[in-house]
Amino acid sequence: MGEREKEEILRMLAEGDGALHQAVAGIRDSEASLHSVDGGWSVLDCVEHVAITERALLAGVQKAKLADGPQHNPIREAKILDRALDRTRFIAAPDPVIPAGRMGSVSEALASFEAARAETIRCVEEFDGDPRSWITNHPLVRSPVNCYEMFLMVALHPKRHAQQIANTRAALAH
Mean pLDDT by 10-residue block, N- to C-terminus, for the chain (174 residues)? Predict the structure, then answer.
């Protein structure tokens, strides 16, 4: 991976991490498990989902296969960048990453996320070659994705749910 791309992905990973931590700052565990009246996920549900999704997407990168050549799809990359943070567009989580009370507190869920995020960062830092030449599967994308696209999705995912957490906390405050 080129240094510029690597730096960009690492920057986006850091931004997502920061947004998630900021979104849960100061929340008490008694508040974290509350659901808003619309029946959406609690704050704890969101952080659990982010943690287990991080591991699942990283596993997809680790299972990637070398393609015959670069699988660069600038249109899909642009869509990922455009849609990942658009909370007006509902994206249903696949069953394996739906929160199921696996974690008892926000601090436990954050610790799980942080451990997975550290593995992701290491994977990006050590990635050798062109990530667009490695393909894997994503449960929500019909055709194979390249590892650069997967890194984009991994990086943006916590930021998307940080927005959801902020909305949930605001709804619960009223």
Answer: 90 97 94 85 96 96 92 90 85 90 94 97 94 92 92 95 93 84
Domains in the chain, CATH or no CATH each: 3-173 (1.20.120.450)
The H or E element that residue 108 is part of is helix 106-126
> Measured between alpha carbons, how far is 38 from 144 in angstroms, rounded to an integer?
34
Which DSSP helix (H) or strand (E) runs through 24? helix 3-24
DSSP for 53-84?
HHHHHHHHHHT-EE-SS----HHHHHHHHHHT
Question: Can you tell me which residue has the tokens 């393609």?
Answer: 67
CA 73 to chain centre: 20
Q: With a threshold of 0.85, does the pTM exceed it?
A: yes
Give the gyration radius of the chain's Cα atoms.
Answer: 16
